[in-house]
Amino acid sequence: MAESAFGAQLRHSRQAVGLSLRQLATRVGYDHSYLSQVERGQRPGSAGLARLCDRELGTGDELTTTFEQKQAQSGRSTPEALQPADALEAAWHGLITAYGCTDATADLGDFRTVPPARLLPDLMTYLQVVQARESADSAVQAAELSVLTAMTLTGFGELRAARRWWQVARTAADSSDDASVRSSVRAREAMSGLAERRPLLQLLATAEEALALARPARGCVVRAHAARAWVLAELGRQDEGHRALQELIGVADELPSASTTDGPLGDWTAYEVHGAEGRVCASLGYAAAGCVLLARALELCPADRLGERAGLELWLAECLAVDGEVAAGVALALRVLVELPDEWHTYYLYDDARRVVAAARERAPGLAAVRDLEVLLERKVYAEGRSVGSGSWSGWGRG
């Protein structure tokens, strides 16, 4: 097919100049696994990718021309014809009333290893495909894509836009017959809402809904219990939070240890469960237990999931500070943010780091390194303009 022709030409041009997939991926700023899928015809690619590859491979405009011909023959326009905000706006309106039948979300299985700014163009592509076709069976896929979009926008600090996508995710989930999906969307939103500084009582109600919808012996039960325990801890309801933590540990122990995550609404893996337990412990002041749980989570978390590992380390830094090891906690937080590539910096991580600052200020107000961490956070790397498709998301309204 035409898409395979583009991928085949890309592979031929790359091999002709002696570049490996990883080398080309580094030059054009894309994940190597994504390029591999484009070459095999499993993903369509984009006009921007074609232009970058033409430049790096010295092929003039051959790849761009082939890609544009493919688009013309298919009768579809690439999302790059729109500015990112316009593309997401169009997709948002389309998904309110239509859910397409597509296996697009299956291609996002590696979303945890793709930096947010690179993930967003794929999300725009799949969102447009979803809204283009009508089928009730695709409501789950629409919910999954909407959750990823909401989380990605929050990672950029685009809180107002993210809240609209959480609304779409709930609408799509509620249109499905899958109670687990309905539960998981609400639990995800409740936990994200903590970073977004939404009203805690509102988040508690959302977490309670997630728990009421959750099915026994399913990963969504763990996520719902984690959301409820986390919100209760943040509300300062120590006794209720303690009981909720015990319930979380209990239901997590009953699930198969080999649980896998196929997407943002799938079952939680062991490292995610231990991470959630450790984060609740930190909020409740059980720092020593939190350190043990988070250290175990880090042992289990794959090395290529840089963003998640950074989050776990920042939670561990908070636990260290709460436990009185303030200098060690602040040093760990500084190391994480300094060593983490800028493309992985997110609003979520900075919120986690601010919690480290708060714990450190309370226990060691005179520690100079705390100010160093505050200065680092003032950079707000996640909010700097980034290239997404042919435009920049820097003009989107912030919440």
Can you walk through the features of this model?
The chain contains 19 helices and two strands. It has a two-stranded antiparallel ribbon. It has 399 residues and is mainly α. It has four domains: 2-78, lambda repressor-like DNA-binding domains (434 Repressor (Amino-terminal Domain)), CATH 1.10.260.40; 82-177, no CATH class; 181-268, no CATH class; 293-383. The protein has helices at residues 2-16, 21-28, 32-39, 47-57, 62-74, 84-97, 116-132, 139-155, 159-174, 179-195, 200-213, 219-234, 238-254, 270-284, 287-300, 306-322, 326-339, 347-363, 368-377; strands spanning 387-388, 391-392. Helix content is 68%, strand content 1%. It starts with a helix and ends in a 7-residue tail after the last strand. 50% of the residues are buried.
Portion in strands: under 5%
Number of separate helices:
19
| Overall number of domains | 4
Order of helices and strands: HHHHHHHHHHHHHHHHHHHEE
Low-confidence stretches: 75-107, 258-262, 385-399
How far is it from the N-terminal to the C-terminal residue, by CA?
43 Å
- Largest sheet descriptor: 2 strands, antiparallel
